[in-house]
Amino acid sequence: MASQDTFQRAYSPRHKEQRANDLIDAARRLAIQEGVRAVTLTAIATHAGVHVSAVRRYFDSREAILLGLAEEGYAEWVSVLIGQLEGRENLSSAELARAVANTLTERPLFCDLLTHVTLNLEREVTYERVRTFKTIVAAALSQLGSAITAATALTPEQAGDFIIAVIAMSAPLWQAAHPAETLTRLYEAEPTLAHIGIDFAPTLTRLLTNLCDGMALAHG
User: Does the predicted TM-score (pTM) go above 0.85?
Assistant: First the structure.
């Protein structure tokens, strides 16, 4: 945690950018340690060792900060996944599904953020901010769709549907696979109630494999 004495007001554009990045880093660390739900402007300020007014000088809301982290998460995940698909051909449904599930599993913060993006982050920022977010994410996912089409037998339309399914499935599955402490205690005390407890990567891999297989049959 930074000292409030060392976090002095920035005046130059370069210093202002650095201060904003420092606050984003504090939000990222907090979200990783305690979950996205725990991230508030006050918590960010406390984590960064500054007064909450210092955070408000750079960001209008927690949603703006978290949407920025989600934007980074999309770009980084797509880049890594495309890197794994490049140069490969005729990937099986299971191979594609496994690559997707594994790259998501390696990014727990991004998976947590996916739940909150459509639930509240996109709804609580300005028109300009959400437009920027949507534009950047759409471009990244378009590149991913092209990479999937090149590496598999999926058509461009099927690749687009596959990506929609990945995002739609990943968010709730991640939350179900990482229950709150009270639910964990409940499942331990009453195992019969743990029927929705899942292992994220194997479950997502299985569901995506079945989806791809179904698409192949429909296309054939």
Answer: yes
